[in-house]
């Protein structure tokens, strides 16, 4: 019990860890709240609890939006350090990463403007800015999926060479671990992309057709995958030290 509490405390002490916990709680509340709200005719008390959980989820989502007001500089620093991906040997991987960084960088100011418009800090309509930020988020997710697929293909080639004759400095176990990480990236980005399409204007694919519980389910899956990846990354750092 004590190690679990200590792990949670360490997770909450970092901005990245706290965001993942808030995200998991946000989508988890939406999943349970949406499921309970569907039982309105059968159980009125469950319906009320479901509505409260949905309100709680909305507040957590708003909290994350406000916290992202301070993410621009860190994203800019990362984009600047990556540049045009001169260190990447594969051209396809390089340009997918560059385009992904551009989409992520543009996403933040668009979301900030939408938030400021809703808060009546700017005299503009927020609708188009929310749509634009969703398009950029969806584009980033799609580019991330394509990038992970490309990485998987390159890792598979390296693994085949490693198993056939000389794999150089790469070990099969390390390559398989990297491949599992990319598969988790694809899973997480795919379920997030399904939600991004849901939040697009009506008429685009399945936009607006997801019930709250399904949005919560998709987001919960993505959030849990993120927590698993974060825990795996921390474990690797601990092993290396």
UniProtKB/TrEMBL annotation:
GO terms for cellular component: peroxisomal membrane. It comes from the Eukaryota. InterPro entries: PEX11 (IPR008733), PEX11C_met (IPR026510). Its main location: membrane. Keywords: Membrane, Peroxisome, Transmembrane, Transmembrane helix. The chain crosses the membrane at residues 129-149. GO terms for biological process: peroxisome fission. The keyword Transmembrane helix applies. It is found in: Peroxisome membrane. This is Peroxisomal membrane protein 11C. The lineage of its organism: Eukaryota, Metazoa, Chordata, Craniata, Vertebrata.
